[in-house]
Structure formats: structure tokens, C-alpha cells
Amino acid sequence: MRITRENCTGLIIDFQEKLFPVIAEKENLLSNCVKLITGLQILDIPLAVTQQYSKGLGPTAGEICSLFQPFSYFEKTSFSCLDEPLYAEYLIDSGRTNVLICGIEAHVCVLQSAIDLQEKGYHPIVISDCIGSRQLAEKQVVMQRFALEGIRVSTVESILFELTRFATASEFKSISRLIR
């Protein structure tokens, strides 16, 4: 399946201040997520952010919030984003079926959201270097689960160049600089 920007939306799951500090390899994860979000913005792909139980886990990390002007998010208490009616409505209204996913934790909210998206007829694409868990073993196991479930996986560099598609695209130089 060719992934095109016209049919994509991005989903940033629960990148929150109280959860992020305990995520394995968090510096790499943050760097990759910033590249992904910035690249998707360059390509004019709509983005949605979720926060899991903000009262307990705090707001979205400042490094992510600062990429959005203005910043807004979907509050949720379910592990799956699709169980949040406002997000589900947003997705329907977008008319887009490919959902590029980054966030934490890979083996909980990312997994359950991807499975539910697929079951509802969407095409979740998990960006593997933009998801994280507290334990690396959890992420390794969930990557196998994605394969078993038939959920597509990509990387930040691969997906941004696939969405750019042509070296002659007006966004190519910006995307290329971002990746390097």
C-alpha cells in the first residue's frame, strides 16, 4: 500500500511529563518524534495529540507542545484513542484513513489504538522509532505483535520521504534537512 499525504493524519499518543522521564531511550525517542511532527507539519498533514488522564500523568511534554501553535489535545481515560468519542469524531470528519502513530507507551496505548483503528477500517502505521515503553523488552514484544496483527510499521525517515515522494517536491529540501 502506497502511503500518500492526502490520505494521512498523525496521532501523537500520551507524550506526557510524568510518563516521559521513565521511558527507555527517551532522548532518541524525543528527537525522532520532533522530526516526525515537524516533517508532518511541513507536509501539511493534520495532527492530533492525546493525553491519558492528565490529572495523574500531567500535560504533554513541553518539547512536543512547543511544536504546536496553538496547542490542543484530546483528553482520554481509555487506553485506546478510538474509545475517546471526540477523537473518533475528529478522525471521521478528517475523511482520512491512514493514521501515522507515535507516542507512549508502545505496548499499551499505542498497541490498543492501532488494533482498534485497524478493526474500524483505518490503516494504522506505527512509526517504530517514534514509540517507546518503560522497558525495551515491552517494545520488542509489541513490534512482533504488530506484525502478527498485520499492522504496518515504518520509520520517521522512511515515512517522511515516502510522503514527500519526489525530490522535486517543494518540501523536499526542508524534509531532507530535517532528517540529517
Q: How would you summarize this macromolecular structure in one to three sentences?
A:
By secondary structure, the chain is of the alpha/beta class.
Keywords:
180 residues; alpha/beta; Rossmann fold; six-stranded parallel β-sheet; 8 helices; 44% helix; 19% strand; globular
- Please identify which CATH superfamily we are dealing with: Isochorismatase-like
State which percent range the strand residues make up.
15-25%
Number of helices: 8
Instruction: Give the class from helix and strand content and strand pairing.
Output: alpha/beta
What sequence of helices (H) and strands (E) makes up the elements? EHEHHEHEHEHEHH
Task: Please tell me how large the radius of gyration is.
Answer: 15 Å
Q: Which second-level CATH architecture applies?
A: 3-Layer(aba) Sandwich
What fold name goes in the CATH topology slot? Rossmann fold
CATH hierarchy, class:
Alpha Beta
Helix percentage: 40-55%
Shape: globular
Number of domains: 1
The tally of beta strands, per DSSP, is: 6
Overview of the structural elements:
By secondary structure, this protein is an alpha/beta fold. It has a single domain (5-179), classed as Isochorismatase-like (Rossmann fold, 3-Layer(aba) Sandwich), CATH 3.40.50.850. It has 8 helices and 6 strands. It has a 6-stranded parallel sheet. Helix 1 (26-42) links the parallel strand 1 (8-13) and strand 2. Helix 1 runs antiparallel to helix 8, helix 5 runs parallel beside helix 6 and helix 7 (156-164) packs antiparallel against helix 8 (172-179). It is globular, with a radius of gyration of 15 Å. The chain starts with 7 loop residues before the first strand and ends with a helix. The mean pLDDT is 97.
